[in-house]
Design goal:
With about 325 residues, the protein is mainly β. It has one helix at about 5-10; strands at about 15, 20-25, 35-40, 45-50, 65-70, 75-80, 90, 95-100, 110, 115-120, 125-130, 135-145, 150-155, 165-170, 175-180, 180-190, 195-205, 210-215, 215-220, 230-235, 250-255, 275-280, 285, 300-305, 305-310, 310-315, 320-324. The termini are far apart.
């Protein structure tokens, strides 16, 4: 059913972080699409837009509860593996779609990089995706745990024909394969990463794929040719048929139609910076006195953080805390 127009067009039901505000909202004729006009946006930052209190036009006025989406320049797909109250998982960014199981029931863990994550041995797929890894694009993801022996696929598009590409680990060593350009050794073993969460980034620019781990260049290769642009199924954690699953945990996947700058990637491991997501849109987290904290949060209520060594004390409303 369509949304209630009065609520859908009230800016009070939409929230942005980093000091930006929603000035107006307009419900489209389809009854489900809302266009937001914002103020104070900085194109160099990634924003979280929070939505709370909207209802449909049914007599019961069903509420969508609290929902959020990632807004960032040239972010085509964002997948966080969060499960809604109906057990569904969606992508956001420019491309919105429902993620589907490949075979059986996917396994999620609540010990993600922020919130939920895709557990080892699981795979999800997103259909009819136009995104192609090519010159001028970036793929970013967070991993935790070791790749198992043999082949472990992190992300793949389409069947193994022209237009297909995949990033995979072979006994831990990273490769990219695409029938149009070949099988390329990326020169890095992800099993050398320490315990905990680590960010991997694959950036294609100047005929070179560069691999970053936690913001540092760790590998790469020269590319000759291009991958044919297609609209096909994108799989996370396995091939499209559900085989060759990743032995670790996968979370926070981002596909960009631009080249990310090194400073946009995760800070090196060991930095005192961290990131935090919260359950409630009514809490803002402020830096502790003894450490510079990189924080994502919504709202206006103040909660102070204190730090002791490598630990941070915070309230029960916090959904997840992670160190880069």
């Amino acid at each position: 059913p369509p949304m209630d127009k009065t609520r859908a067009e009230d800016p009070a039901y939409y929230m942005l972080n980093h000091g930006a505000t929603v000035k107006s909202a307009a419900l489209s004729d389809d009854g489900i699409t809302v266009t937001l006009t914002c103020e104070g946006l900085d194109t160099s930052k990634a924003y979280t837009v929070g939505v709370i209190g909207l209802t449909d036009t049914k007599f019961e006025q069903n509420s969508i509860g609290y929902a959020s989406a990632t807004v960032e320049r040239d972010l085509y797909i964002a997948v966080d593996f969060e499960v809604d109250e109906n057990g569904r998982t969606y992508s956001n960014g420019t491309f919105f779609g429902a993620l589907e199981t490949i075979s059986g029931i996917p396994s999620f863990t609540d010990r993600g990089q922020s919130g939920m994550a895709l557990s080892p041995g699981s795979g999800l797929q997103l259909k009819d995706v136009p995104f192609t890894f090519k010159e001028g694009t970036s793929i970013v993801m967070w991993v935790n745990g070791k790749a198992s022996s043999g082949y472990n696929v992190l992300i793949a598009k389409g069947p193994k024909s022209s237009g297909h590409f995949e990033f995979y680990a072979r006994d831990g060593k990273l490769f990219m394969y695409a029938p149009d350009i070949g099988d390329m050794d990326l020169g890095f073993d992800i099993n050398t990463l320490g315990n905990g969460w680590h960010q991997l980034a694959f950036i294609w620019t100047s005929s070179q794929i560069t691999v970053y781990a936690d913001g540092q260049i760790v590998g790469g290769c020269t590319v000759k040719g291009a991958i044919r642009e297609t609209v096909d199924t994108m799989s996370f954690g396995s091939l499209n048929d559900g085989s060759l699953t990743f032995g670790g945990v996968l979370d926070t996947v981002r596909l960009y139609n631009r080249v990310l700058a090194p400073e946009e990637l995760a800070v090196p491991k060991g930095s005192p910076e961290c990131g935090i997501r919260v359950k409630s849109p009514l809490i803002t987290l402020l830096p502790g006195e003894n450490a510079p904290l990189g924080i994502t949060a919504l709202g206006s209520t103040v909660l102070k953080l204190t730090t002791v060594g490598d630990s941070v004390t915070l309230a029960d409303d916090v959904l997840g805390l992670f160190y880069h």
